[in-house]
Q: What sequence folds into this?
């Protein structure tokens, strides 16, 4: 084990997913996947992880980060004259085949920015944009438990929003301060292999919901 990876904790799966994940290539067409990053910080580790995912995207998918920091805080009164940022966000999310949520842990939950994005997308009532979008949640934290609390709080809301969330593998990435070098690249190739496994599983998950 390299000294670096000793500091990085990836609680990836409680079952041997290698037996469960067939090849990537079952998707008939390239799928468009939105990446939502819960941190608004310029040097965000979660955003670095999102960029790593984009770099390692299999050729069955296109990944795009959709910004959430510009969304006004949800207030139902504003629906009378819907803020253009909300309207644009809702329209954009509808265009995607699936969503990958990448979140830090703030006080054992996801961030206010991420929750606000979920709330904005969930309304007006009966126009919930998250419904039936095959989703996955990744939590990235400097802490030792890999943002477990954030990951599951987010899953709780997604359940209510009728977004089918991939169960396994679970991606709780802890000790993330050591995960990236100064260029934002992964410091250990074994993490790269875990990302490939994640994509294999997520492709399989997409296949259950889209052609
Ligand atoms: C308001 C706040 C609350 C936090 N709460 C937690 C927490 O509950 N668990 C944890 O592991 N880290 C917590 N952290 C540390 C973040 O996980 C850490 O700052 C992380 O790097 C944030 O993600 P980012 O780098 O993508 O911005 C907290 C940070 C802030 C600013």
A:
């Amino acid at each position: 084990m390299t000294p670096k990876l000793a500091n990085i904790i990836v609680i990836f799966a409680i079952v041997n997913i290698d037996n469960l994940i067939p090849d990537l290539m079952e998707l008939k067409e390239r799928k468009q996947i939105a990446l939502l990053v819960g941190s608004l910080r310029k040097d965000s580790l979660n955003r670095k992880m999102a960029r790593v995912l984009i770099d390692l995207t299999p050729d069955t998918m296109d990944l795009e980060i959709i910004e959430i920091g510009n969304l006004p805080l949800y207030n139902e009164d504003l629906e009378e004259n819907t803020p253009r940022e909300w309207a644009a966000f809702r329209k954009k999310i509808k265009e995607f085949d699936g969503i990958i949520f990448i979140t830090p842990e703030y006080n054992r939950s996801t961030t206010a920015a991420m929750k606000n994005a979920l709330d904005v997308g969930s309304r007006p009532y009966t126009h919930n944009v998250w419904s039936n979008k095959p989703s996955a949640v990744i939590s990235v934290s400097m802490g030792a438990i890999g943002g477990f609390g954030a990951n599951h709080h987010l899953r709780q809301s997604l359940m209510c929003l009728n977004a089918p969330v991939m169960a396994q593998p679970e991606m709780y990435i802890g000790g993330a301060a050591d995960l990236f070098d100064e260029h934002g690249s992964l410091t250990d190739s074994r993490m790269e292999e875990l990302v490939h496994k994640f994509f294999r599983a997520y492709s399989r998950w997409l296949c259950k919901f889209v052609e």
About this structure: The mean pLDDT is 91. The domain at 3-207 is CATH 3.40.50.360 (Rossmann fold).
